[in-house]
Amino acid sequence: MTTHIPDVKPLLDYDAEAETYDATRGGAPRAEAAAAAVLTLLPAHVRTLLDLGCGTGIVTARLSRPGLRVLGADASHGMASTALRRGVPVTLADAARLPVRSGSLDAVSAVWLLHLLRAPGLVPAVIAEAGRVLRPGGVLVTTVDKDSAHDVGSDIDAVFAAHLTPTPADSSGEVEGHAARAGLRPAGEARFRGHGQGRTPRDSAKALLAGQYASRVIPRGISAAQLAARLELLPDQDVPRAEPTYRLRGFVRV
User: Fold this and answer.
1) Is the pLDDT score of 234 beyond 50?
2) pLDDT value, residue 211
3) Residue 243 φ/ψ region, left for φ over 0, alpha for ψ in the -120 to 50 degree band, beta for the rest
4) For the chain, how far is it from start to end, CA to CA, in angstroms?
5) Which residues contact 200 (CB under 8 A, 6 or more apart)?
6) How far is CA 163 from its chain centroid?
7) Predicted model pTM
8) Antiparallel, parallel or unpaired: β 134-144 and 245-253
9) CATH for 14-146+168-198+243-253, among 3.30.300.30, 3.40.1190.20, 3.40.1280.10, 3.40.50.150?
10) Tag placement on the chain: N or C end, fewer CB within 10 Å?
11) What does the radius of gyration of the chain's CA atoms come to, in whole angstroms?
12) Among candidates 194, 179, 86, 60, which has minimal Cα distance to 130?
């Protein structure tokens, strides 16, 4: 019997990626921009913040202001260990089943998390869980439309156009609907620059084959290898295209 080996990995192995993850995703400049934007959406009364899907803690460690206590949570042991070494107090936890008392937190953040949650019902479950652990008046701050932020009108985007995921898990309208059902109403938004995230054709082809676009690109009518080959035909293989601008939305617990 022949075993089929797919040419694209469906998900990243975050335990294995932890050591090199930050260097391939904009590093400190992108993290500082993200943290600064999150802080603009936190009211002055916020004293406790849980950062869901904190990953390596590179953003979490920068969510700092006087009187604010920040904790991280991640489902990956490798990522959580890296965050802990960075000095972030972190718990190994599923974002849809948090080991946190109901109504005990002032704020929850989720940066670059929801777009990865492709299993049916998972995004609303995570948002509902955030609503559960927040106090009345507490806030959820989350990135939305993450994948579409990378559509900057480049030649790379033209190659991907016919193969984009039709139903992003973190579309702003869907997130707002899930938030409303969890007792959360809109409370502002912010944008920040994706420093270091301008893509090159060569790196995009590698990322596609490594499964890094699994939430965004589903090759249709061709294999992933064939789609990557189209990227490899583009000019200026190592010249980064425009950097994305990411969007954050805030929601308050009523």
Assistant:
1) yes
2) 87
3) beta
4) 57
5) 236, 237, 238, 239, 240, 241
6) 20
7) 0.89
8) antiparallel
9) 3.40.50.150
10) N
11) 18
12) 179
| Tokens at 66, concatenated | 């006087």
Ordered by start, the domain boundaries in the chain are 14-146+168-198+243-253
pLDDT digits (tens, 9 = 90+) for 31-89: 999 999 999 999 999 999 999 999 999 999 999 999 999 999 999 999 999 999 999 99
Q: What is the pLDDT of residue 214?
A: 86
pLDDT, one tens digit per residue, over 96-106 is 999 999 999 99
Instruction: Please choose, from the candidates 147, 170, 146, the residue with its C-alpha nearest in 3D space to the C-alpha of residue 160.
Output: 147
- CB of 134 within 8 A of CB of 253? yes
| Strand residues in the chain grouped as ranges (E) | 48-52, 69-74, 90-92, 105-110, 134-144, 184-193, 245-253
